[in-house]
Amino acid sequence: MRYLPIEKIHDDAVLAMPVYSGNGSILLNANTVLKRSYLTKLMGLGFAGLYIYDEISEDITVEALVSEELRIETLKALSSLNIDTCRLMAHSIVDELLKKPHASIDMVNVASFDNYTYTHSLDVAVLSVMIGLASGLNYDQLKRLSEGALLHDIGKMNISLDILNKNGPLTEEEMAVVRLHPADGYQMIKGDSTIPATVKEAVHAHHENEDGSGYPRGLIGNKIPSFARIIHVCDVYDALTSNRIYRRAINPADAMEYLMSNCYTMFAVKYVKKLMEYVTPYPTGITVELSDGRHAIVVRQNNTHYLRPCVRLLDTREEIDLMKVLNLTIIQIVI
Questions:
Q1: Is the whole-model pTM more than 0.85?
Q2: Active centre residues (catalytic)
Q3: pLDDT one-digit tens code per residue, 111-128
């Protein structure tokens, strides 16, 4: 399979991964033949690209970090704002990731505008748990971290979609409304005695910056709860690599560069480093440009060096292991 921008997908291509709606239901199943009407509808919903099957990539596999069943049930729980079910789903995320200790973040983010908030929350939970695993958190801590990450944006449920999906810069008044969501989310769960304080504080503090410039309380450095510092890194990474109505997603390599350049001001450097252990800058199935000008598909990762995967040339289909052919490098992702 391979990932292609939706405008480059030909009629009658075969979908390789399911496409989800805002409430977690499946819009199109894997193996669906993509008619022009389907592609037009998906473009209107804001899907930037899809994974498809074709001859040149038929042997390439990309594995989702969580199962399709768990993804669907989690998106349903988030869209209905069922807090108890969300917490159970957060625990299931931990359980599934514990079975994949060597997994990497190796997929392009595929989501529409209408399900961004829910898909984003799920993705942030997955990323946060991976950082938690790399940081040596125990099982109970991982569950609480996952809960906080999955619930981190529940305060946005009170914000108008006209603001969340605005096609352009927010006004000062609109930005003030958005900045209320960590405190609003905290208030929504504050009175629930079954939710640990660490989860509540993670929701409350996930937009605090290391230098005190964040919100809502302007906390600094170690005054920010550790779960919130992890979630902050994952929140921004996923937002940058997601397609939004007001901008296209940026590629994983550029997103990591942004995180690294904002360590000590926005982000805790130790958690950015942990995320870097899992992120593949050039995800499997994506098209890249090599330093000699040729284009290739990433076939598989070299786990010892994610910057130098194995690639397959589009013109000759020759396979090149960039760990062995050192005079070639990847220049950019081709979108």
A1: yes
A2: 156
A3: 655 556 788 999 999 999
